[in-house]
């Protein structure tokens, strides 16, 4: 995998729907703040309008080795293509009524800031390194290299309530287009 944006998805295991995200639709986001790569604390429950939050497991730096078994873990590879697809669809998502767009992982904000700069992301990443949101919402996770990582998903939140969830997400580079298509088909009436 020399170019992280060029992946033959047919060679990777497809994640199956294990039901771990079925409980999320209709839940209100908890009143807690997450650190953003912009340096601000983001209170997700207080954000007005539609918010798109996509969760990804682990974004590696170019110089870092892959986690052992990463390519064999269903749904694990693809964090960079997913983030870049949301980057490339950011304007269209805004035009479809999205007020805020965030990526979410359990990595530290300092680690995430490198990815925002390297990938030229026009939106912030949120750090849940202490697993507060993950535990409060019971987000699907898996363990790798001693870390608790989020399984890939995307949520559309409307005035603090989870409106719909995309899970499992595969292939990751198509997630932003799927989210956009849903938003276009379900315009916000509020």
From TrEMBL:
| GO MF entry, a single one | thioredoxin peroxidase activity
Is the keyword Disulfide bond in the record? Answer: yes
In which domain of life is the source organism classified?
Bacteria
Give GO terms for biological process. cell redox homeostasis; cellular response to oxidative stress
Put simply, this protein is called Peroxiredoxin
| The keyword Cytoplasm is annotated on this UniProt entry | no
What keyword terms does UniProt attach to this protein?
Antioxidant, Disulfide bond, Oxidoreductase, Peroxidase, Redox-active center
Residues covered by the Thioredoxin domain:
23-188
Please give an example of a GO cellular component term from this record.
cytoplasm
């Amino acid at each position: 995998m020399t170019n992280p944006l060029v992946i033959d998805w047919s060679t990777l295991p497809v994640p199956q729907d294990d039901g771990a995200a079925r409980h999320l639709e209709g839940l209100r986001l908890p009143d807690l703040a997450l650190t953003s790569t912009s340096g601000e604390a983001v209170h997700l429950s207080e954000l007005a309008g539609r918010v798109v939050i996509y969760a990804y497991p682990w974004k590696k730096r170019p110089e870092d080795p892959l986690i052992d078994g990463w390519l064999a873990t269903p749904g694990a590879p693809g964090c960079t293509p997913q983030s870049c697809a949301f980057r490339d669809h950011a304007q269209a998502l805004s035009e479809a009524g999205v007020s805020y767009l965030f990526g979410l992982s359990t990595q530290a904000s300092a680690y995430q800031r490198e990815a925002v700069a390297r990938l030229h992301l026009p939106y912030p990443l949120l750090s849940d390194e202490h697993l507060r949101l993950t535990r409060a919402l019971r987000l699907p996770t898996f363990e790798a290299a001693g870390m608790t990582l989020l399984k890939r998903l995307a949520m559309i939140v409307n005035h603090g309530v989870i409106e719909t969830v995309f899970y499992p997400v595969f292939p990751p580079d198509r997630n932003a287009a799927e989210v956009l298509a849903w938003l276009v088909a379900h315009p916000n009436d509020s």
